[in-house]
């Protein structure tokens, strides 16, 4: 019964999304305010029904209703309750439901808070969001219905994929969806603006924090996924350039570009068509990611079970949504050109360069990810494009980007004399050079040119980011939140660059065969293999190794990596054991049993690896701080007051 | 993820590092750039698949026997094709792949130069309202 | 202004590739040996460890080489069809028994029937690597001169047999 309620709610949500999509858009073209006014109530209704549908599916999981096919395939009565709930989005069908729910949540937030915007713009944007939601809901209902029943009902379920039975992976998909789907807001406003052909700074100011929030969620989501891969896949890597990772990274890069170009458009009214294009691209790349992950066109570790029918449907969806937005862009963009000058040494020029490099980086990732598909589709052979390619190619735009970032932060709008810039940046530049050379040489006793460059770049960004906060604290001046946000986010990037450089340059990794009593010595530490025992989990059996880590016989940590076999899916999982400190991780993973108490083991020493995820969190924090800047609220409010006063806020404007 | 299959007979793999650090480094570099075809998105260094173990053993043997990196890559490619290499080989079909990202940056810089040329001749207007 | 249409042009190209990609299998790796001579090998026979099965034994007529093992689920699925094929296809089937346990493999052939003229016993997996094998079951079709005509991955079925193998066999036999 409950699943049927969910099914019905899902259908009603689709109907409401169609209402929300069709009426406001046609109404605004035909000048029917009564039609457009339906946008907000429809958005609210859609959210309520999707919440009901989601609740129904969650109930089916928690009550072990294996007559629902999706539950039977992805849960089991022995699965811990926490994971039963998380299993709602553990596979394709349910994750699409979550996708829709998150979209409805963003839409509701837009509906509730856009009262400060001129109504026609808000209504049209809600209409666009309604159409996107309708597409996604049709996809869910027609190709991936989570409420399909299974006859006869199995006695027990097939269990959740063991890879997903992990706290970080419970949060990873919702955060990613918050990010992906959040870019739909900027997309909707961009399309709404293109429909009339007017981009006023109003929506730009209003769209900025939304874009920042979406980007923030994506940042945390990606970082969480990277952290999960690090400790759960058992290899100790933190980024694999897997197509699915790339699919989430491309919208992140373009979203970062969008945040920066929005700054120029808000401040100077320039780059309007470029900003619009980025807003379309950020969300389109999110949809593209959904397509890549769920269609099976690329090989990936994390791909969902794929089905060409689903692939075709999402491809059509992508074609309609992105295609129509881009056609609209081709038609309206020429009219958006605005004049306004700036010099080579100006904030505008450096932000433009930032955009070009970020988009080139995203383009490079897209190109490398899709190249095997291009060749295959043309019948020109099968190749693999992996980390050795991306690691090289990604640095081409990224190194200049990071080096220019320190300059860009301290450049004034319009024009700036070179001399005042050099005066400001000489000290941090020298400090970065000194620290970037000293740290690797003193700590690790040597460095390759690329490592030195990476360390110097990392410190350069950190010092440049700290310049304004230090100045403001010393002179007791008040710095606006947005400036704090920028400083914090860039500080995070610097920490990330430093962490990534040091980890990739100085990690020590040993794979070997070990019997109980053996000792592996790396980085001045002894890892002693103490023993092995059986461990019983709720839905798995495991063997657990015990390793003591000693420095000069002083005990530093006891690590207990596991090798688990989950009972239902009988797949073996490696649970690495990690001793974490801010400056290094000690990592032990148990490999295969090699007979007679011998095991293959992997021992790693990973300096500064925590800086990678810490850097991401700090970046996201910067975004949060910046988005709470009071001027967004104030300026938006005052703009609307003026408009109301002058009586231009009529529905047909 | 391991496929839902039975497991073949595993030979005990020799995992002791090479005594010669240079050989060890070459061996590690090779297995870290070789794609495991069974599991498809892992290198043979990371994979527990039996085929990956066999390939590691072959590569280890050949490194020990004094084969060059090019010999070993060639050994892999004649058997499994270019798909086995995570570092795509340079050949006519991959020229675009390798030059693409640099071309993108180059195009971007040309656009940048053009924009600066145009904008720096426009008046630096006052703050828009 | 044509330059504002660049994005939509790029996007259309991309969609065209994706549409084609939907009908391709990204995980299928074609054998580099197709059109080339089958690799040389020499293995002890499964049923008679003292005797050897070599490349020269299997060239001279159209032949199938089937990679199998008792640990491989797909091999179980296709086995009955192989047994059928052995009596009806009019060409010899040779087995490459990959990283298996000899006694288990012998028991399997006894119980399920033996479609193979002979099976080579590849305990180390080196011959399988030489043949570019990466997932059993795999089936190679060899021309009389020893050229690899085709390699099929995944269990053989009648449908695959008539779609992929029969036309190639007919072409060689000049039918």
Which features characterize this protein?
heterotrimer; A: 653 residues; alpha+beta; six-stranded antiparallel sheet; 10 strands; C: 175 residues; alpha/beta; five-stranded mixed sheet; two-stranded antiparallel sheet; 7 strands; 39% helix; 19% strand; elongated
Give the % helix of chain B.
Answer: 40-55%
Report low-confidence residues of chain C grouped into runs of 5 or more. none
Indicate the multimeric state: heterotrimer
The N- to C-terminal Cα distance of chain B equals 59 Å
DSSP helical segment count of chain B: 4
Tell me how many strands of chain C there are: 7
Shape of chain B: elongated
Distance between the termini of chain C: 60 Å
Radius of gyration of chain B: 24 Å
Structural class of chain C: alpha/beta
State the shape of chain C: elongated
**Rg of chain C (C-alpha, Å):** 20 Å
Round the mean pLDDT of chain C to the nearest integer and report it.
89
Please give the largest β-sheet of chain C: 5 strands, mixed
Strand content of chain C: 15-25%
Strand line-up across the major sheet of chain C: 5-4-3-6-7
Provide a descriptive summary of the structure in words.
The complex is a heterotrimer of chains A (653), B (129) and C (175). Chain A is α+β, with helices and mostly antiparallel strands. Chain A has helices at residues 2-30, 33-36, 39-62, 69-74, 81-86, 92-113, 119-143, 167-196, 201-232, 243-268, 272-295, 308-332, 347-377, 387-408, 418-444, 449-474, 481-506, 610-627, 630-646; strands at residues 508-515, 519-522, 525-536, 540-551, 554-559, 562-566, 572-575, 577-581, 584-593, 598-607. In chain A, strands 2, 3, 4, 5, 6 and 7 form a six-stranded antiparallel sheet that branches. In chain A, strands 1-10-9-8 form a four-stranded antiparallel sheet, with helices on one face. Chain B is an all-alpha fold and 129 residues long. Chain B is built from four helices and no strands. In chain B, helix 1 (21-31) runs antiparallel to helix 2. The longest helix of chain B is centred in the last third of the chain and has 25 residues, at 95-119. Chain C is α/β, with parallel strands linked by helices and 175 residues long. Chain C has helices at 6-21, 55-58, 73-88, 102-112, 126-130, 158-173; strands spanning 42-44, 52-54, 63-68, 93-98, 118-122, 138-142, 148-153. The longest helix of chain C has 16 residues, at 6-21. Chain C is elongated and about 80 Å long. In chain C, 39% of the residues are buried. The chains are: A alpha+beta (653), B mainly alpha (129), C alpha/beta (175).
């Amino acid at each position: 019964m409950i699943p049927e309620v969910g099914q019905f709610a899902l259908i009603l949500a689709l109907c409401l999304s169609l209402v929300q999509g069709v009426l406001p858009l046609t109404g605004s073209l035909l000048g029917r305010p009564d039609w457009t006014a339906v946008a907000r109530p429809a958005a609210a209704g859609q959210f309520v029904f999707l919440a009901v549908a989601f609740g129904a599916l969650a109930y089916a999981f928690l009550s072990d209703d294996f007559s629902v096919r999706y539950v039977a395939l992805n849960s089991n009565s022995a699965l811990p309750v926490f994971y039963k709930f998380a299993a709602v989005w553990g596979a394709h069908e349910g994750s699409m439901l979550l996708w829709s729910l998150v979209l409805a949540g963003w839409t509701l937030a837009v509906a509730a808070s856009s009262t400060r915007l001129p109504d026609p713009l808000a209504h049209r944007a809600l209409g666009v969001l309604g159409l996107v939601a309708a597409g996604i809901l049709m996809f869910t209902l027609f190709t991936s219905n989570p409420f399909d029943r299974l006859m006869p009902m199995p006695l027990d379920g097939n269990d959740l994929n063991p890879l997903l039975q992990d706290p970080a992976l419970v949060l990873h998909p919702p955060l990613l969806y918050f990010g992906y789907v959040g870019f739909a807001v900027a997309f909707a406003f961009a399309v709404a603006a293109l429909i009339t052909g007017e981009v006023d700074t109003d929506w730009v100011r209003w769209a900025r924090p939304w874009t920042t929030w979406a980007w923030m969620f994506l940042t945390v989501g990606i970082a969480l996924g990277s952290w999960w891969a690090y400790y759960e896949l058992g290899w100790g890597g933190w980024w694999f350039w897997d197509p699915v990772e790339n699919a989430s990274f491309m919208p992140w890069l373009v979203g970062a570009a969008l945040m920066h170009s929005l700054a120029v458009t808000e401040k100077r009214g320039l780059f309007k068509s470029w900003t619009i294009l980025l807003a379309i691209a950020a969300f389109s790349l999110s949809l593209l990611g959904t397509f890549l992950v769920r269609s099976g066109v690329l090989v990936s570790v994390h791909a969902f079970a794929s089905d060409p029918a689903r692939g075709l449907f999402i491809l059509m969806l992508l074609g309609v949504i992105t295609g129509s937005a881009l056609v609209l862009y081709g038609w309206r963009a020429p009219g958006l050109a605005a004049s306004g000058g700036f010099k080579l040494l100006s904030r505008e020029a450096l932000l433009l360069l930032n955009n070009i490099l970020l988009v080139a980086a995203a383009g490079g990732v897209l190109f490398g990810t899709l190249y095997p598909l291009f060749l295959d589709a043309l019948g020109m052979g099968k190749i693999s494009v992996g980390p050795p390619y991306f690691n090289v190619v990604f640095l081409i735009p990224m190194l200049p980007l990071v080096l220019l970032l320190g300059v860009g932060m301290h450049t004034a709008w319009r024009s700036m004399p070179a001399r005042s810039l050099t005066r400001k940046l000489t000290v941090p530049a020298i400090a970065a050079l000194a620290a970037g050379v000293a740290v690797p040489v003193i700590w690790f006793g040597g460095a390759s040119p690329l490592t030195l460059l990476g360390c110097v770049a990392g410190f350069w960004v950190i010092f440049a980011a700290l310049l304004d906060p230090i100045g403001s604290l010393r002179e007791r001046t008040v710095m606006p939140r947005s400036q704090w946000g920028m400083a914090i986010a860039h500080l995070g990037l610097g920490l990330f660059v430093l962490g990534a450089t040091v980890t990739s340059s100085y990690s020590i990794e040993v794979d070997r065969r070990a019997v109980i009593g053996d000792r592996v010595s790396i980085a001045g530490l002894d890892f002693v293999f103490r023993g092995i025992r059986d461990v019983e989990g709720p839905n798995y059996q495991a063997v657990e190794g015990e390793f003591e880590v000693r420095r000069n016989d002083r005990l530093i940590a006891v690590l207990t990596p596991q090798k688990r076999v989950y009972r239902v899916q009988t797949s073996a999982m490696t649970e690495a054991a990690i001793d974490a400190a801010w400056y290094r991780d000690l990592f032990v993973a148990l490999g295969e049993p090699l007979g007679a108490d011998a095991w293959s083991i992997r021992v790693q020493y990973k300096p500064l690896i925590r800086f990678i995820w810490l850097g991401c969190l700090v970046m996201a924090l910067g975004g949060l701080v910046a988005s709470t800047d009071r001027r967004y609220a104030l300026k938006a409010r005052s703009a609307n007051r003026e408009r109301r006063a002058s009586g231009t806020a009529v529905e047909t404007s | 993820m391991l496929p839902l299959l039975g497991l073949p007979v595993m030979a005990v793999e020799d995992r002791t590092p090479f005594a010669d650090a240079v050989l060890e480094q070459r061996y590690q570099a090779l297995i870290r750039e070789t794609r495991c075809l069974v599991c498809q998105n892992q290198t043979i260094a990371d994979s527990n698949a039996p085929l990956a173990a066999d390939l590691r053993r072959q590569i280890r043997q050949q490194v020990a026997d004094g084969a060059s990196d090019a010999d070993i890559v060639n050994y892999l490619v004649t058997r499994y094709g270019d798909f086995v290499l995570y570092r795509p080989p340079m050949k006519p079909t991959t020229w675009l792949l390798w030059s693409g990202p640099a071309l993108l940056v180059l195009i971007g810089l040309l656009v940048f130069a053009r924009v600066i040329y145009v904008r720096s001749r426009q008046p630096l207007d006052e703050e828009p309202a | 202004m044509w330059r504002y249409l660049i994005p939509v042009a790029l996007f259309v190209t991309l969609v065209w590739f994706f549409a084609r990609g939907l009908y391709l299998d990204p995980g299928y790796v074609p054998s580099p040996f197709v059109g080339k001579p089958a690799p040389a090998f020499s293995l002890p026979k499964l049923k008679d460890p003292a005797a050897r099965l070599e490349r020269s034994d299997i060239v001279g007529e159209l032949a199938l080489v089937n990679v199998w093992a008792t640990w491989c689920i797909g091999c179980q699925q296709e086995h009955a069809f192989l047994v059928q094929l052995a009596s009806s296809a009019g060409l010899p089937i040779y087995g490459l028994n990959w990283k298996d346990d000899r006694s288990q493999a012998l028991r399997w052939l006894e119980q399920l029937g033996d479609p193979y003229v002979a099976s080579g016993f590849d305990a180390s997996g080196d011959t399988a690597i030489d043949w570019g094998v990466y997932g059993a079951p795999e089936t190679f079709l060899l021309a009389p001169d020893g050229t690899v005509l085709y390699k099929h991955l995944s269990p053989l079925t009648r449908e695959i047999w008539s779609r992929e193998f029969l036309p190639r066999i007919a072409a060689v036999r000049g039918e």
